[in-house]
Amino acid sequence: MIVPGKPFEPRIRPMELKDVQRVWEIDVASFSLPWPERSYRFEILENPASHCTILEVSQDGQQPEIAGMIVMWFILDEAHIGTIAIDKPYRRLGLGRILLADALMDAYQKGIRMSFLEVRRSNQAAQAMYEQFGFQVAGVRNRYYKDNGEDALLMTLNPIQPARLKQLREKPLIVESGN
Ligand SMILES: CC(C)(COP(=O)(O)OP(=O)(O)OC[C@H]1O[C@@H](n2cnc3c(N)ncnc32)[C@H](O)[C@@H]1OP(=O)(O)O)[C@@H](O)C(=O)NCCC(=O)NCCS
Fold it and tell me: Which of 90, 92, 141 should be mutated for ligand 1, with most atoms under 8 A from CB?
């Protein structure tokens, strides 16, 4: 855990097999329908369309801890966001924003020009983050989520805007006051 009130360093890197257990813990803590752990192994090892990335943070030269992850599927010129989560103690610091900005910039640099995702109708935190990037609601997938029959909003970003990504990536992180 990072100590509130002190600066910390985020680092974004490709997900490796050794990360899967921690990533899965974050998934289970973040979603009512988590992916099975083996899905992450599959995405890393067997799905050539998959781009799995983690964000880790370190403070005072301590061992970095994984704070979040994103999985995107690149299909032709589209990037489908399969999952993104930041572990609860690390939320609202700007980490979701930089993780998503980095992943979309990577997609853009590979020639991808649009992105889409599904998000629960009730998930206002995620929707607010996506709106900052320019994602807009393009449709509804009725009763998409099996646990409670909730609708998914289909959100699309078309085109991906690299100048906006750069701005969001460079916005300072929040260092919590600790009070
Ligand atoms: C969605 C999620 C990844 C955001 O990560 P985060 O690191 O907390 O987000 P950030 O601190 O980078 O915030 C980026 C923007 O998102 C929005 N946001 C994030 N959390 C919010 C909240 N609780 N309420 C309202 N807006 C919120 C804000 O617009 C924020 O910008 P601001 O700081 O300028 O106000 C995180 O809440 C999470 O992991 N949720 C559970 C998993 C999930 O729902 N994933 C999305 C599935 S579609």
Answer: 92
